[in-house]
Design brief:
By secondary structure, the protein is α/β, with parallel strands linked by helices. Helix content is 36%, strand content 24%. Bound molecules: 2-deoxy-2-amino glucitol-6-phosphate.
């Protein structure tokens, strides 16, 4: 949603905040701002990216050792200077940044308007700020107390951080539903939506829980709940390196993260896949094997790319474990009042672990007695804390808004979970189990070999970069891969693209086919291969622009007039991990060809923390 950064300590606050906002820009980038205490509160904000704010502040005296900063993804109030954060209260005493949505802001605003408050913006945030200001003024209480009183009235999701000109050495922060991590330094503290703005200063962090409030000075951090009881901070060590969040010499984070995949898939397997012993070791699975093996059904709940990983998992789990699987869009599942209860296992798949629809969907299912198993990338995220157990994907920080390495890591983790359950259930032979372990183990090298011929994929991309529409088709395990390819192209190139089961074409979409429409088949060798080849011939017959992701050396493609992107052969169960790579590169190169900002596509944010 939005990115927040704050600092209090002995350093110049502005450069720390500015650098942090740039690291969090993948969370939202339609306007940005900072507020500093420098002889009173000074607020600076600008529509556009963080660089626009930076430019507008050249030559300004920004000396301060305490400050708050924000990069926005608009919900209430269009992107503009006046709707940008931070907001300053009517009294001018406090300033605030906010990530989330205050759902009951309208009645509170009406109350304040009746009291004569005037609002400078259209945001829900300014309403909460003036509500706190009003409590502060009328109750003669501390800012901490005023925040506590106000939050008891609030409905919605929030991380808020406040500056107070009457306590110029103190930050007040609170959280419910949106992420907040506090970095502990020597006589200084760093606050941010995730660890990427903090890692270069300290590895000691505290993840704030829902309904917690933090009172932060340079040399002091006090945590309390909304009941005003003290909470002992749980200090954790960050296990990531700064390099992981830098571009590493690549032009874009998206390209770096595509090229990270041989390593991230290896990291995902490391310490879990034991080829020598012919086994898989996954703590969260092992500890709950009985529940997983005896699950009446597995319901996969997710959004976007994570939902596509869930769809691949449906094919894999039903094939290997013979357990019925349903794949649900979290945004529908949370409101549909689904029939869920004890005995049901929910797989919550999420890169960020902060997607609001997925959070509420699993909270609802948990309340009905279902067992929640999280497949997540961000350690310590909200979904990790809601889940009963889980498995991390170890893909490292994913900065590019379009998910790439997290997707392949999700597929690998889901494959390993399915294999572990199948082995325990005896629903596959030990020989098949060992064969699939070897297939998983071979993935990093096979991914590297696809990346080594990326130039050939770039040529295909350049040929089709001016298309106005695209069709992605696949069958079986490759159907969800086609959906993912279409999503990547939409996100990165703004070309309208649809993914479809290839056999569905004849029931309508084939009407779209003409000499201008690129039609891409994920057509690697598997049980559906022959049928897919005949579908491709139907497109050839109608002069459609045929593109294929095919298995290296597949001679059956020779008679087709098509642009082919080859991948190494692999068992159909693990092949989606390979088959998506050319589609990631295709969308990246088409985005570049069209001169677009592939790391920060318009209208998108990396984690959608509001519904
Ligand atoms: C994928 O490229 C998008 N960024 C988006 O669809 C994403 O997959 C979706 O918002 C789910 O995010 P999550 O995995 O962090 O829950």
């Amino acid at each position: 949603m939005c990115g927040i950064v704050a600092y209090v300590g002995t350093r110049e606050a502005y450069p720390v905040i500015l650098k942090g906002l740039k690291r969090l820009e993948y969370r939202g980038y339609d306007s940005a701002g900072v507020a500093l205490i420098n002889d009173g509160i000074k607020v600076y904000k600008k529509q556009g990216k963080v660089s626009a704010l930076e430019e507008s502040l050249l030559g300004v005296d920004l000396h301060a050792t305490i400050g708050i900063g924000h990069t926005r993804w608009a919900t209430h109030g269009e992107p503009s200077d006046r709707n940008a954060h931070p907001h300053l209260s009517s009294s001018g005493r406090i300033a605030m940044i906010h990530n989330g949505i205050i759902e009951n802001f309208a009645p509170i605003k009406q109350e304040l308007l009746n009291k004569g408050y005037v609002f400078k913006s259209d945001t829900d945030t300014e309403v909460l700020l003036n509500f706190i200001d009003d409590i502060l003024t009328n109750n003669a209480c501390s800012l901490e107390e005023a925040v506590r009183i106000a939050l008891k009235r609030v409905v919605g999701a929030y991380v808020i951080v406040l500056l107070d000109k009457e306590n110029p050495d103190t930050l007040i922060a609170a959280r419910k539903g949106s992420p907040l991590v506090i970095g502990i330094g020597k006589d200084e503290h760093f606050l941010a939506s995730d660890a990427s703005p903090i890692i270069e200063y300290t590895k000691e962090v505290v993840y704030i829980n829902d309904y917690e409030l933090a009172i932060i000075k340079g040399d002091e951090l006090v945590l309390k709940n909304l009941g005003n009881e003290k909470v002992t901070p749980f200090v954790q060590q960050l296990d990531m390196e700064l390099a992981a969040i830098e571009k590493g010499g690549y032009d874009h984070f998206m390209l770096k993260e595509i090229y990270d995949q041989p390593q991230t898939v290896f990291d995902c397997l490391r310490g879990r896949l034991d080829l020598a012993k012919g086994d898989l070791v996954m703590g969260g699975v092992q500890a709950n094997l009985e529940k997983l093996v005896n699950a009446k059904r597995i319901i996969i709940v997710a959004c976007g790319t994570s939902w596509h990983a869930g769809l691949v998992a449906e094919y894999v789990i039903e094939e290997l474990c013979r357990i019925p699987v349903e794949v649900e869009y979290a945004s529908e599942f949370r409101y549909r009042n689904p029939i869920v209860g004890p005995g049901d296992v929910i797989f919550a798949i999420s890169q960020s672990g902060e997607t609001a629809d997925t959070i509420v969907a699993i909270e609802n299912a948990k309340a009905k007695g279902a067992f929640i198993f999280g497949i997540l990338n961000v350690v310590g995220s909200s979904i990790a804390r809601i889940s009963h157990a889980g498995a991390y994907t170890h893909a490292g920080p994913e900065i590019g808004v379009a998910s790439t390495k997290a997707f392949t890591a999700q597929l690998v983790v889901l494959n390993m979970i399915a294999l572990k359950i199948a082995k325990e259930k005896g629903s596959i032979s030990n020989e098949r189990f060992l064969q699939l372990l070897a297939e998983l183990n071979a993935l990093p090298d096979k991914i590297a070999s696809i990346l080594s011929v990326a130039d050939a994929i770039r040529v295909v991309a350049q040929k089709h970069a001016n298309a106005s529409s695209f069709l992605f088709l696949g069958r079986g395990y490759n159907f969800p891969v086609a959906l993912e390819g279409a999503l990547k192209l939409k996100e990165i190139s703004y070309i309208h693209a649809e993914g479809y089961p290839a056999a569905e074409m004849k029931h309508g979409p084939i009407a779209l086919v003409d000499e201008n429409l690129p039609v891409l088949f994920v057509a690697t060798k598997d049980a559906y291969h022959e049928k897919v080849v005949s579908n491709m011939q139907e497109i050839n017959a109608r002069k459609g622009k045929l593109i294929g992701v095919v298995t290296e050396g597949d001679t059956s493609m020779k008679m087709l007039k098509a642009d082919l992107m080859e991948v190494p052969s692999a068992d159909e169960i693990v092949a989606p991990v390979l088959n998506v790579i050319p589609l990631q590169l295709l969308s990246y190169y088409i985005g570049i060809e069209r001169g677009l900002d592939v790391d920060r596509p318009r209208n998108l944010a990396k984690s959608v923390t509001v519904e």
